[in-house]
Target: Chaperonin 10-like protein
Amino acid sequence: MTPPSIPTTHLAVAVTTPGQPLHLVRRPTTLPSLSEALIHVTWTGSSPIDLHRADGGLLLGDTTPTNPFILGCTFGGTVVALGSNSSSSHLAVGDTVYGFVQDGAEQEAGYQEYVTVPTWKVSKLPSSSPLSLQEAVTVPGNLVTAMHVVTEDLGLALPWPVTPPPTAAGVAGEGILVWGAASGVGMYVVQVLRHWGYGNVLAVASARHHGMLKELGARVCFDYRKEGVVEEILGYVEKSVGNGGSGPKVPFIVDCIGSTEGTLRPLTKIAEPGSKVGVMLPVINVHAGQGQEPDLEMDVSKVLPGEWKEGVELKGTRTFFYAKNEFFKNHLQPEIVPALLEQGVIQPNKQRIVEGKTMLERAQNALNLLRDQAVSGEKLVWRVADEAN
Ligand SMILES: NC(=O)c1ccc[n+]([C@@H]2O[C@H](COP(=O)([O-])OP(=O)(O)OC[C@H]3O[C@@H](n4cnc5c(N)ncnc54)[C@H](OP(=O)(O)O)[C@@H]3O)[C@@H](O)[C@H]2O)c1
Model:
């Protein structure tokens, strides 16, 4: 039976028809089974994936007005119940928690007042933490993404507990180019690389973010808005990046944006045979604008065919599959993410709090900011439950 303080139904924000405004729907609150936690959600964060779903109709499956797609890849809130196998987990009723979840999964998607989530997708914010929940909620989606792209797509080691990378002498000296370093994903990629000892991080972002990125760990920054940025990067690596005279001058590249013209085209001129390039999917051929239909591509090999040098290893990043790495499944959200945050190793993204009278209005206002490409060096966060502090 549902404990009396837990409502049997609650509100959620969903896509019902691509290209149409978001909807508020009412769905049943699911009590946690076995190794799950039921969480009262007070904060969430918006990401470009919401726009890809809402305007681009990306991987919406059989979404219809009667089968809505609940949005939200992150949640922050309070544990209100635990499944019977969860008593030995890292959680207790009353804990303040946050996590990265799968949007579209009815029980766990973040834009709803209650989520029912496997405990391995939950990080605890200790009561002694100096961080607020709205700060913490900026972290899980993009930090998990950063660790996934570095390990799965670049093939670099991130051992836990942290030790210098096994090939420190070689890899630490080799260049890792992070294009789109001021994005939500990029800021965590830079910090993760620094913490694990990969010291030669080249960051590409607007000039106004260069000071911040150097503080987070970038060795050198380039301004993608400046004409000739590709030649500038090539000139720098020609002179400065040690690769022992063999192999690609930039062996590792993370494209944190995945824009055909904005990031991939310039990267075709930088990547060489042997370079590994991790690209955030979907690739954006046309960005969703006010009244402009987006064009998205999930297969990175179909983008700019014939323009990459033979031997460049292109990888499309898909973080929703990060738990295929069993170690990450068991340790990333329960242990590693909160430890990095509490130790002050990882600084949360700067937050922009999106206001609105209702949770639907806040979700819609955040979507408008994403549509207008008004997010820069920050993460959009907003209150979910109307009664949240
Ligand atoms: N597949 C996956 O696993 C996965 C996971 C996470 C995110 N993603 C995708 O990755 C993309 C980024 O997500 P996010 O949350 O990090 O985005 P975000 O923070 O909203 O991105 C905004 C930032 O993009 C930067 N930017 C835009 N165009 C750029 C360009 N041509 N070169 C360099 N920087 C550029 C801007 O930098 P400046 O401020 O410097 O101008 C701005 O700070 C989204 O499409 C998202 O859906 C995919």
